[in-house]
Amino acid sequence: MIKKFIFIIIITLAFANINAKTPEAKLEEANALYSKGKYEDALDLYNDLYHQGYSSLELNYNLGNSYFKLNKIPDAILFYERAKRLAPDDEDLNFNLKVANLKIVDRINTVPKLFFIDWYNSISSMNSSATWSYLIIVFSWLTFIFLAGYFLIWNIAIRKISFFASAVSVIVAIFCIIFALEQSGKEQAKDEAIIFAPSVYIKSSPDKESTDLFILHEGTKVKILDEVGIWKKIKIADGNIGWLPAKTIEII
Fold it and tell me: What backbone phi and psi angles, to 5 degrees, belong to 214?
């Protein structure tokens, strides 16, 4: 009897494994539904994958596209921003995010940064941390190869070129390490959010009786500076700071 029971369990698990779809297969199925214009059905599958813990650039990007097609702009912006952390320089993604931001109420002017800070941020955001890590490996190997050429080849001209090339490779590798750490910090940070309340008054302190400073609307991106109980201290792109209820935002 016990053997028969174990046999039934094994057969059941075997069929379950056969019928179970891989995340990639479910993603392809959702993509097919999206291409047919069945955005709600596609969104259901995308969300199933997301809540199961599956994460990828394609999934976040397609979630953003699906929400945008269904005119759920805050959700679209949220997932575009999540995708951007994985591919900060993706042209299609940045274009779609820009279009989505045109549909929100708030128009906030960004505080200009010093040119070298802007230059540094632009370079570090050119690639994801994974790509920068790959480049670290490439330039580390190049350094090793050029140093080997310097020590093993006795031609003076070639030795000079090898030494110079190895020095350049080392410098580039160091910058890649810096940019990888910078980008990894941005990807893992939980200090940015999207407002999901239709409108919310930004307070002068973490107290509902405090002074109203200004009002923000759904879809606006904020930076989180501090937290007190159910309140979050936030900063917007123009430098203004205030407090809002934590329940009104969704962390990117």
Answer: -165, 175
Longest dimension (CA), the chain: 84
- Alpha-carbon span 164 to 127, nearest angstrom: 26
Distance, CA of 243 to CA of 212 (rounded, Å): 9
Domain boundaries, the chain: 2-101, 115-188, 192-251
Q: Which residues of the chain have pLDDT under 70?
A: 1-21
The dihedral region occupied by 229, where left means phi > 0, alpha psi between -120 and 50, and beta the remainder, is left
Is the domain 2-101 a CATH 3.30.70.920 member?
no
In CATH, the architecture of 192-251 is: Roll (2.30)
- Please give the pLDDT value at position 163: 94
> How many Cβ atoms are within 10 Å of 202's Cβ, its own excluded?
20
pLDDT of residue 123: 86
pTM over 0.85: no
